[in-house]
Structures are given as structure tokens and as C-alpha cells.
Amino acid sequence: MSKNDDSRLPPGTHFMMGNFALAEGAVAAGCKFVSGYPITPASEIVNRLSVLLPPLGGGFLQTEDEISAVCSAIGASWTGVKSMTATSGPGISLMQENIGFAVATETPLVIVDVQRLGPSTGVPSAGLAGDVVQVARGSHGDYQIIALAPGSPQDMYDMTIRAFNLAETYRVPVFVMPDAFIAHMREQVVIPDQSDIHLVSRKITAQGTDPMTRQDFHDPNVAPMPVFGRGFKSHVTSSCHDEHGMRNLSDPTTMHNYIMKPIEKIISHRDDIIEVDEDYQNGDMILVAYGSVARSVKEAAIRAREGGLKVGTLRLKTLWPFADKEIEAAARAASGMVVLENNTGQMFPYIKAEAAAYCKVNFMGPKILGQIHDPEDILSFLKEINA
Amino acid sequence: MSVTEHPLRKYTRPHVKKTTTCPGCGNGIIAQAILRSIEELGLSMDDFVFVSGIGCSAWIPSPLFAADTLHTTHGRPVAFATGVKLGRPESHVMVASGDGDLTAIGGNHLIHAARRNIDLTVVLVNNGIYGMTGGQTAPTTPRGLTTITSPYGSMEHALNISEMITAAGAPYVARWTTYHPRQLTRSIKKGIRKKGFALIEAVSQCPVQYGRVSKIGKAVDILKFFKKNSIRIDKASRMSEEALEGKIIIGEFADKEKVELSSQWLELSKQMMQEEGESCHVKS
């Protein structure tokens, strides 16, 4: 595709970079507002969207920092527009306070975190799955979000559409969490006909112009959103509020609901949200991975099976909400489990907590952090632990 | 006894019976100036989205005003408002917040919104101190003032907000005090009508915190102080820096026309959609 081509790619099979596939997915999902601040390895996403959005009636706002990027995307979402911001770990760190704002105000929003090697400024162009816990736990207070882990440019397209659908369905921020490798990888991407893409838009309130007679918040089955500019006289605050959006800092039950209802919204729909790829049989040594590492794991499992080993795989396509039941089911079937991550073990404690009662759980990081696991290293590791 | 309803009561939420401001606070004067501006312009509250941050003055629109209100995190209302305006350009988007919120923690957003020239009306309440948290030094606190966090006198220089935002390129900037409610109302009206970024700095009294530490006194004393120490901008331009020490320069700092951001977004989309339509037409 040429840089100046302002048209979306036509349906068909294309060869493209993960970040460009993500941009196409956002457009296919109906995204109209994107904000961001330049950052490696995420920049190609907004570079492409700044070209694609104006002819579709939308636009890209380059903000003064990532704080402004997430805030303006939340503001745009409250006008009823599908909104997104794209960044990398340092940007997520800056956004954290206002990610909590989006959670507390039940704002649909897609946040892309192309993960790079850290801590701090680290290595911008090397991938490391270093943000998988910070996106779920990095803002202060107690809450739940949704996070998806793409493992290919095709996933970048498909999961971005799904991220918008989940954000619109549940009125929550949804993270798309590739690492730098997936973001810069060039691979085949199939773009379907727009009419074949399932799209969801948020429900908008239809209950008159007085918030005191409406339920705008705190419905575990998702309250219709009182978007701005339609005479709803909506009251939106991230401070503790009741179901009408009115601030209340004194009633303990309101405080409980303010924290608990947005959490219930996600947890009670976890079966609809969580996706895993399961490829294992009873008695297998099950390799658990996500993102780019799941590709090495897939290859290692093929080679291990060719060598006569009983090896299965479990790929987490959803990192959050956590796939606790799916991990437990795998652990019950497994002879043992190996968790593989391109970090020092961020999801590992969560996985181990679900699995350890049923089988032994090992962790394997890459030989060199910031490098995707070599399948041969995985095979050696399996031999070491007598799989 | 008959009770007369306040003429601006129709603009406030029926269930909100009281505000959170202290007796003598300038917020009431400023809230009235905003609502009077809307009434005098013949606009509806439904034409507006009000955005505020954290601090006493962020409570001016929220929960009081019967309109869409977005009460945001500390320092960020201008960033949120930018997204609201670009998402819904046909709405008037007004930010009401304080000097700490908009120029300390949120200073960068204010500067860049002025630079971008996005159509927001920002009513910045400058009381020279952090009121809500108990009277700490603000970027607007005069040098030498003893506050709870500058017990030996503030050693820092105060920020000149209106000059800064004029330099950042805002097409409308005005500063008044709560002693000047009519002028304040007139400037808020001009700000709403201005297609572009408008900053109205309202120098306001905090009798509880600022009045106490400055020893100026109660609300009326501070208003008298504002009256005595305010100098019109045209007169101030002929005065020396020494003579202006401790004075409040009031009036319009900027009033010009300038191409605005959200209308450029709309124009670009319109133009490109038309071109797209034409090229499709050619193809078929």
C-alpha cells in the first residue's frame, strides 16, 4: 500500500505489518476518533489512521502527551463516538490514572499497548510482555478490565474489531496487547467483506432527560449510556457515585456498588469474553502461552509430538478477565504444565494459583529477555523436566 | 411568607438544593456569570457540555448545572473537553476549573488547547491558593505570602495566566475579578460566541484560606482589595513594572479571529468524502 493511499484496503488477502492490520481493524470496527502521542513501536498505527480517518468522517488528534491522549479519547467516547488510543508501555504508565477514570465512568474505549522492552525507556524496538499485569492492576483502586493478546497480524485485525465490540457491549476500556514483534511482523492478513463483519454499538439510554429517573451506571448487565449532546443532562463523575451518576461519598452501600458493579459487569460475563485455543489431550504436558511466545510454543509442540512426547498447548487469547476455569480444566487433564512468557513470569503466579493443586507448574522465560523463545530451547527445557 | 425562586434556578438540577462552597466564596458570582451569559445569549443548557477537574471551582457546574456535565480527574478537564468538542463539534464545550487544576498539574493541556485553537470556553477561577486541600501555595500565589506549605513566605514567582495563554495563541483572553461580575459576564458571552479557544480568568476570593493567610480579611474585604488593586490593561500598558507590583491587570488580553481546529476537521472530512464520492462515481 502506498503511504498516501487514503482508502481502506479492499476485501481479500494482503501482506502487511501488524500495526497496519490493527489500523484497518479499527476502521472496520467503526472507530472515528483516535488520539495518541508518537512512540515506538506503536507509531505506525496512528500514522496510518491519520490518513484513513478523515475521509470516513473521523480524525486523529496528536496530543501533547499520553495523558491527554487517553482523556480526549474518553471525552470523544462520551459523545457517542467509537474511540481509541494507541501507545506503548511508557504511554500506558502515563495513562494509568485516567484508565481508572474510564473504568469508574463505564466508558467504552480501546487502548492499544504495543509492548516494548522495559522498565523505563528500555529498548523501544524490542518486544517484552512487560505490561500484561500493569494494564490490569496499574491504576489505583480495585477494578477489572478486558485485555486481548494478538499473536499475528491477522489477530491484530480480528482482535481489534473484537476489542471494539467488547468495549461497546460492556462499556469498559479494552486493551489490545501485541508486543513489538507482532506489531512489526509482516504476514498474510485476510480482510473480509465489511458486510460479513459482526459489529456492536453501545446501547444509548431512551429514558428521558432526568438522570434521577434513570439508571445510567452500576448495572451488571450494562446500563444504556447517556451520551452527551442529546438533552440527557447526564452527570458523569469518576468520584464514587450512585446509579444516576450523582456523587455520594458517605453511603457505604453506594461505595460498595461503585466498585463492585463494574467488576460484576465483566466477571459475570466472563464466558462471553474469555477466549482460549486449546490443543491438548489427557496426560499431556501442557504448554501455556500467549502473544508472540504462543507461536514458538506451537512449533515446539509439533516437534515434540514428532519426537513422541505427549505435549499439548493452551493459548490465552484473553489475558483479562483471567481464564481461571480454562487453566484449571487444563491442569486437571495435564501431567504437568509449563508457562512460557517473554518476561520473568508476570502471568505465571496467576496461572500457578489455579493449576498447582492439580499438577506441577513450571515457568520458562526466553534464554535472553526480549527475544522470542527458540522452539529448540523449549524442547531442551521439556527434556530437562522429564516431560 | 412568599419565597421567590432565584431567576437562574431553572438552569440548575432540581434535586440539587445546596452547593459545596464556603460562605463568601467567589464561586457563586462566577456560576451566576456563566448562567447569565447563557440566558442573555438565548442558548439552551442542552447546547452545552460542561467539563471540570478537581478543586473547589470544579464544583461550579457539577452537580449544579442541569446539563451534560463531565467531572474529571485533577488537571485534565481541557484534555477531556478537547475530545468532547472533536466528537461533537456542534456542542458548546465549557471548562470551569481552578488555577491549580488548569495551570499547575494541567498546565500543558491548557497551553496546547490554546495553541491548537480548539473551540472551548475556559472559565478559570484563580483564587491564588489551593483551597480545598487546606491552603497550600499555588503557582498563582504572590511571592512572599505565607501559606501552610510556605511557612517562611513563598519564594516563587506567581504565574501570569492570561499573558501565558495569550502568548500560546488563544484568540480570546480576558481577566476580571469577582468585583467585576458584569464585565465577567460580558467576556464569558464573548468567549462562548468566539469560534476558537477562549480563556476567561476570573480572579476570585477564597475567604477561608487566602483571606486568612493574606490577612486581607473576609469576602467583602477581598472584594474591596480587588476594587482597589485592579488596573485596566490599557492603563497598565503605560505603567512601570514596579508600579504594577501587586496589582491585578484586568480587561481583554486578546480578541481576534483565527482558524479553529474542530471546523477544520469537519471541513477536511467533508472535502475528502466528496472526493471519495466523485472517484466512486467515476469508477462506476
Labels describing this entry:
heterodimer, A: 387 residues, alpha/beta, Rossmann fold, 2 domains, seven-stranded mixed beta sheet, five-stranded mixed beta sheet, B: 284 residues, eight-stranded mixed beta sheet, two-stranded antiparallel ribbon, 10 helices, 18% strand, globular, disordered C terminus
Write the H/E string of chain A, N to C: EHEHEHEHEHEHEHEEHHEEHEEHEHEH
Amount of beta strand of chain B: 15-25%
> Any idea of the CATH class of chain B?
Alpha Beta
Helix content percent band of chain B: 25-40%
Range of strand content of chain A: 15-25%
**Name of the level-1 CATH class of the largest domain in chain A:** Alpha Beta
> Biggest β-sheet of chain B, characterized?
8 strands, mixed
CATH topology call of the largest domain in chain A: Rossmann fold
Radius of gyration of chain B: 20 Å
Helix content of chain A: 25-40%
How far is it from the N-terminal to the C-terminal residue of chain A, by CA? 46 Å
Number of helical stretches of at least 4 residues of chain B: 10
Structural class category of chain B: alpha/beta
The largest β sheet of chain A comes out as: 7 strands, mixed
Strand arrangement within the widest β-sheet of chain B reads 2-1-3-4-8-7-10-9
Low-confidence spans of chain B = 280-284
Radius of gyration of chain A: 21 Å
User: What CATH architecture label of the largest domain in chain A applies?
Assistant: 3-Layer(aba) Sandwich
